[in-house]
């Protein structure tokens, strides 16, 4: 190591540093964010003069309102309609849609079949690819871009995620015989709310299902009976450790590297009230702040292994904010076999990240 | 098997009376109900305590008590449930490879058949029959959601 800071600054940027830290966090985005774009065949025509364009565009916008994600005109070329829509001839198709005779004549003169992007661009990389085919409309989404390029986390957030990834490894190896481990974290402080470990074998009592039940314990609930001892809270504490099995708590307390890790969950706020059976849809971190703990609202879940479909849906029902996992599973439902978080019909969507080390 | 829907509806009403989402379920084995239950989400603060999971747990306890092989028992079970199992429950029932699922009304928000193809993801086919006394199951849900639902106030706020 060179102790001279100034000298350090004069060196080329710290490519070395990045190399030594292979830890990465990759967002698992839905297919809409895939770099490869899909194309579709369309009928277009090249009009003879720009003067004709205005009348043509006006009528097309009204009677054949296709291609919302594209510019309708490029120089003297106009997009008419997807080629698949045309049953017989272009002329008949235009007549069917009551295109006036003048415009119809113009459109049928210099017809080309070309390929254009089939859907709108979500990311700049897609946009850049798409414009090679045809001018597109594009509304940059800063957050989606940051997920794509990994700049969504601050340095300290990344450092915490990395610690959790390492902790998953350690707990699995040292305490749990290599079985799956899950950690639930309240990211506001951040603080560990619950830990669970279990095999994801033939029974339905997978690690995630236990984790969700341990979080329930931190809210004076929990359904499954177990021989495991849980940490008992001191009277009048402001946060609760009751989602933590004693065996993990003891491990964290004896491990010098874990001394500064915060443990415990905020207590449910109005205990006399039943939780809402159907909570309002809103930004979920805000709901955690506004209403206090309810299920896993606003919480992050770290898993050694990618969850199966049952567990992935359990985490939807539990309204988890983000899921981080280390290893893929053959029956994984977030990346390997399926992408549950990309199903738009669901009433809750979490973000999914995979650690790479 | 559809005659057991009455038992499932009884469980759904019991769940409603306890302030839970009114969904009920029974597991039928050799023409006998061996497990019954309704949703227990609120009482346990656990969003996964659906009627089907109550019955899965009860079946495992039943097998332990009677010293029966759980895997085989599940393969002989008819699941009778008032509402189409959600993706989570459907995935569990497919993984456990139950004999068949008979449900009342569809679950268009997160049904394991209506919204996604659980059988394809899990890689296990099960006979599924829907629409058994669907109207009764649906009206239980509708009455619940328009009634004393604690989620109602925020909705009312939006209207302002």
What does this structure look like?
The complex is a heterodimer of chains A (357) and B (160). Chain A is α+β, with helices and mostly antiparallel strands and 357 residues long. Chain A has two domains: 34-147, no CATH class; 153-274 and 287-356, 3-Layer(aba) Sandwich (Cytidine Deaminase, domain 2). Chain A is 31% helix and 18% strand. In chain A, the strands form three sheets. A six-stranded mixed β-sheet of chain A has the order 1-12-11-10-6-7, with helices on both faces. A four-stranded antiparallel β-sheet of chain A has the order 3-4-2-5, covered by helices on one side. A two-stranded antiparallel ribbon of chain A has the order 8-9. In chain A, strand 10, helix 12 (309-317) and strand 11 (322-327) form a beta-alpha-beta unit. In chain A, helix 9 packs parallel to helix 12. The longest helix of chain A has 21 residues, at 155-175. Chain A starts with a helix and ends with a strand. Chain B is built from eight helices and five strands; from the N terminus they run αββαααβαβαβαα. Chain B has a five-stranded mixed β-sheet. In chain B, helix 1 packs parallel to helix 7 (134-146). The A-B interface holds A 202-204, 209, 212-213, 216, 219-224, 268, 273-280, 295-296, 308-310, 313-314, 316-319, 331, 333, 337-338, 340, 343, 345-347 and B 19-21, 40-49, 53, 56-57, 60, 71, 86-88, 91-92, 95-96, 109-110, 115-116, 118, 121-122, 145, 149-151, 154-155.
